[in-house]
Design brief:
It is a single chain. It contains 4 helices and 25 strands. It is an alpha+beta fold. It folds into 4 domains: 84 residues, conserved putative lor/sdh protein from methanococcus maripaludis s2 fold; 87 residues, Elongation Factor Tu (Ef-tu), domain 3 (Beta Barrel); 66 residues, RNA polymerase II/Efflux pump adaptor protein, barrel-sandwich hybrid domain (OB fold (Dihydrolipoamide Acetyltransferase, E2P)), CATH 2.40.50; 75 residues. The strands form 6 sheets. A 6-stranded antiparallel barrel has the order 4-13-16-15-14-17. Strands 2, 19, 20, 21 and 24 form a 5-stranded antiparallel beta sheet that branches. A 4-stranded antiparallel beta sheet has the order 3-18-23-22, with no helix packed on it. A hairpin with a 4-residue loop joins strand 20 and strand 21.
Amino acid sequence: MVLRIFPISLLAVMALGACGKAPPPVAAAMRPRPVRVQAVSLTPHEDAATYSGTVQARVLATLAFRVGGKVAVRPVDVGDQVTAGQVLARLDPNDLRLSLETAGHVVRAAQADAANAQAEFGRYQRLGRNSPAFVAAEFDRRQAALDGTAARLAQAARQFSLARDQLDYADLRADAAGVITALPVEAGQVVAAGQPVAALAHTAETEVAVDVPENRLPDIRAATDITIALWSAPDHPLHGRLREVGALADQASRTFMVKVTVADPPAAGIGLGTTASVRFAHPAGDPVALLPGTAVVDRQGNPAVWVFDPARQRATLRTVRVGTWRGDGQASVSDGLSQGDLVITAGASMLDASLPVTAWTGPTR
């Protein structure tokens, strides 16, 4: 018997033929892969940054009595709107009134001493220096007595004015219109001069304080349009004005506090302590293209995008320059693209220059 040895490939073909199946083609044409594309639209670039902050009064004054005593009444409460000159608290005026009466008696006694010294000096002066009864030393003594009584009268008058002012200080009044934010004392409590009695937030000027990273401070200073949106009323934006940029960074967050004054507060006022967002915008510059961040891939350390060519059904990787990465997930491309270019926005990281692709026209899930 003669054994014939057949190649393995021939055996495979014979086996398939026995099964009634044709062998697979050596190379099959690849079907184009559908991709999502977006047409480039170059628009004027407007760099803007938004930060959240807290509404606060520009002036928050801590008010206190200038004299000590017992608090008799406190006619206001926390949250009350007050006007300039309104009484916030009052001390018991009895002791201060007695001090004023005592000062008045001292003034009258000083006036009597001064009048008596003036009369004695006048009589001795009329003697004349040629009179045998005139003694120069006595003349000098009477002159000194007159000057002393005049000084004591002036001192008594100043003490009387001080006692009168202290009686007025028994009423603690608001120095400006505002809202009461704290009242650390109650009626009947004895307080010392200078002890905090009330905290008054002036409502004449309201501002929003935000924390800004140090690398964004130049953009904040260069902003030409500042808009404030209250979280309680986002549909009613307000105009803002940059008032202060902090000179010292926070030790924990390394951010700088920036204060923006509300230029046009609403008629009903803004609630202190509420949250607001501040948008700092810059003037329009060179045209840029806004693309989803998923469209940008890395090409040897540089950002790039895939540009779709419908005629060739191929995508070409093109290096671009990204100006800013926006908080909404989009990238601002400032160079490398032209108006109308079709940029692949989904699956860009899985493409290859030799892979045929076609634009996806179906629904977006």
